[in-house]
Amino acid sequence: MDCRICGGTVTEFLDLGRQPSANRFVPPGRAAEEPLFPLAVGACGGCTMVQLTTEVPRELKYHDEYPYRASGSALHREHFARAARDLLRTELTGPDPFVVEVGCNDGVMLGTIADAGVRHLGVDPAAEVAALAAARGVRVLTDWFEARTAAAVRAVHGPADVVFGANTICHLPYLGSVLAGVDTLLTADGVFVFEEPYLGTIVERTAFDQIYDEHVFYFTVRSVRELARRFGFELVDVAPTPLHGGELRYTLARPGRRRPSPAVEQWLDRERATGLAHPRTVERFAEAVRRVRTDLVATLERLAAEGRRVVGYGAPGKSTTVTNYCGIGPALLPFICDSTPAKQGRVVPGARIPIAPPEAFRAPYPDFALLFAWNHAEEIMAKERDFAERGGRWIVYVPRVQVL
Ligand code: JHZ
Ligand code: ZN
């Protein structure tokens, strides 16, 4: 296929089979109607951008009942409150600053901006989650962010000092239109700041569960720098953030308006040294993924043969990739507990494993718990200390299958 950024040739390196849209947690009766799509990733020989080879239509992904709640963990709430305070302190300092967020979800970041009385607008296509943001005082436009919406926002609200996105920019296949929109919206010295899953973390930790239909792109510093250049921006800063096992936050500005941080070159050097996105590296990653599948299935089958009770903990979008790729269904995992009300009573798409509220975990405790929300391990293990104290064991599969 042709690269969505530069038109170069994308060479596939990992095929995760036919999969449903990861966050379409459906009532059990409707599970059979859900469409499946090929899920595979490849790297562009031109601009190096790693991307999905097939796209799921956006209306299927970001529908009105989109269930993900970014405020669903203390880790996220604290991280985004800090991100908002940082923006207020560093960028939103003029007389009447304005910030636009691409995909504001339930207002986890803009809530802090709204509390500070600063002008803002969240643009999010998912009606239920947008209503949650509005309920906490965040101004929301229920739509997709692209060149068209950016022009409309500018016409009504004027230019923005910051356009922000977190775990949303890699979701948008039409990044050219997104950057044209950012160009329309930003003031001359404004910045586009976004934090997204990092291919370096995915490869280093064999975190293949970050690969699903929503994540169209798997950024590296090199590919983001190319992207910025191609659409009239300059990458001026890169910084690590702790979410989803380790992401990167990128800052883009208009060329020559900001002095680039030395961090940009440092990250590029590190990527050159590890050969990130190089065919050999991604082939090795694909092998490691297949090994995780073999080991995870063998572990669950052994425990089932021994008559042990195993349940899942956390049903992130990531759990859809793992269960469908590994062929794990209710026979090996009778249910998964998750704290999100919008997911409870539904099933994991494709794998059709029922999702129960967290109370089901305690009634009674299983012998083993497979931790799908591994990126929240600290918070979850602290909350469920009693499980481990009574002899329960956690099973993790990142960076490799381990029974803790
Ligand atoms: P979590 C999301 O992915 C969605 P997901 C999105 N597609 C994206 O791009 C990525 O973020 C990056 C539950 N949980 O945060 C809540 C408990 O049950 O890893 C969530 O369902 N108990 C926009 O879906 C899930 O785990 C708890 O104590 O991979 C975590 O989902 C905690 C802390 C969480 O995001
Ligand atoms: Zn390309």
Automatic annotation (TrEMBL):
InterPro entries: Methyltransf_Zn-bd_dom_put, Methyltransf_Zn-bd_dom_put_sf, MeTrfase_14, SAM-dependent_MTases_sf. Residues 3-60 form the Methyltransferase putative zinc binding domain. Gene3D superfamilies: 6.10.250.3100, Methyltransferase, zinc-binding domain, NAD(P)-binding Rossmann-like Domain, Vaccinia Virus protein VP39. Residues 242-399 form the C-methyltransferase domain. It holds the Pfam family Methyltransf_14. This is Methylation protein EvaC. The lineage of its organism: Bacteria, Bacillati, Actinomycetota, Actinomycetes, Micromonosporales.
